[in-house]
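If you are new to this repository, start here. Below is one unmodified record pulled from the training split, so you can see the exact layout before writing a loader.
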Amino acid sequence: MEASTLRTLNKFAVDLIQIPSTEDLFWYVAQNVVGKLNFIDCVVYQANEEQTTLRQVAAWGAKNPFGRNILNPLVIPFGCGITGKVAQTGRPIIVDDLLTDQDYIPDTQLARSEICVPLVFRGKIVGVIDSEHTEPRAFGEVELEILDTVAAMTVAKLELLAEAQRSAQRYRDLVASHDQLSQEITTRKALEARLFEARRMESIGKLTGRFAHEFNNLLTIILGNLELAESDPASPEMVQRLADARSAGERGARLVRDMLTFAQRTRLSPAVVNINLIVSDFAHRNMHLVNGRLTLNLQEDLWSVSIDPRAVEEILSNLFENALYALDAKTTGGKIMILTENCQLSMTEGMDAANDLVPGRYVCLRVSDTGVGILADRLSQIFDPFFTTKPVGSGTGLGLSIVRGLVQQSGGTVSVSSAPGEGSTFELLFPAVQ
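And here is the target side for that same chain:
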C-alpha cells in the first residue's frame, strides 16, 4: 500500500474508538476514509433488519452535493442490481465494464466500472460500501484489498457500538426494575447499583483489553511496513507522508497503552514517596504551558504514600490536560491550582467516601481549575471510558478513566465537584504510610 493509504487507515484506526454512533461511522467512512483513498465517489448502504432492502445512508463525491443530507435516498432490494447482488451473496464484486453487465442499473451519471464490498456482522449483512468510476477497469485487487480492510474495521466498530447499546439497555432495565422497589430498601439499591457499576467497568475493561490487543497487532503491521518504506523514500513529499503516517501510528500506539492502563493491565511498582516532590517537578516542567496560571499549595510536612511514581505522573498529566482544556474553552482566562494536604478520615467520613475507605491517615491531592465547569447531567459520565466532549480526533476520552483506574489500583479514591462557569475540582485520597 502507498504511504498516503497507510496514513489514512492509521488515522481511521485511531479515530475509530471515538466515533459515537452508527450514523457518524458511516459518514466518516464515506467522507474521511474512502473519500481520501483515491476513489472518486463512495456510497454506503445500510441493510434493514428483515434483510430485504438496502438504504443509502452516506455518500461522498458528485452524488452527494449536500454535505450530510441525502435527498431522496436510494432504496435497493436484495438481489437487485450489482449492490443488491453483493448484499444477497455476501461476496465482493468488481465490474470492469458496466456497459456489458446485465445487473447494472444506469444512474443519472453514467459509470463504466464499479467495486462493491459487503459489511458482514456476525454472519449478517448490515450494509454495503460501493464506488463507481467513469473509466473502465478502474478497480483491481489493490482497491479490493483496501475496501475489504475498511469494511473489516467498520464492522469491528459496529460490534463495539452494539455492545455499548446492549450495556446501556441493560443499565436502563436495571434502573427501571430498581425504581419499583420501596424506599425501605434504599441502602440495598445503592449497593446493587455500585455492584453493577463495578461489573460494568470490569466488562468494559475486558473488552477494551481485547480490542487493544488486536489493535496493537494492526499497528505493528502498519509501522513495520512504514519502516520498510522509509528505508527507500522516493521524494521529499514521500518523506513527509511517511512521517505523517508514522506520527499517526505512534499516536495509535499511545492509545493502546492508555486502553491497557484503563483496563488495569499495567504493572505498577509502588515505592514510598513524597507526592510534593513529584508535583513540584511536574509543575516545573509544565509551567511554560500555563503562562503563570498555575499555583501550588503544598503542605510542608506531607505524609509519605506507597505508590508508583509513574502513576502519579500519569494522573497529574491527565488532570492537568483536562484543566487546560477547561481554561481554553472559557476564553476569559482562569487559573489552575494543585494542593496537597494531610487528612484524617473518621468512621463517618470513611463510609461516605466513594470506595468505603477505612478510617485513618490519608494524603489528599487536589487539582482545581476556574474553567468552564461540567454540566450536571455529564458529571456522572466523565470517568466513563471514551466519553469526551472534544471533537473527533482531538482526544481519546480515556484520560479521566485512566486517572480513576490508577487511583483505584493504588488503593485510593477520586471524586469531582463542579459547577458550569465556575470550574472543577478533582480530589484524590491515597493511604498514608504508617
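Two things worth knowing about this chain: The radius of gyration is 26 Å. The longest helix spans residues 186-230.
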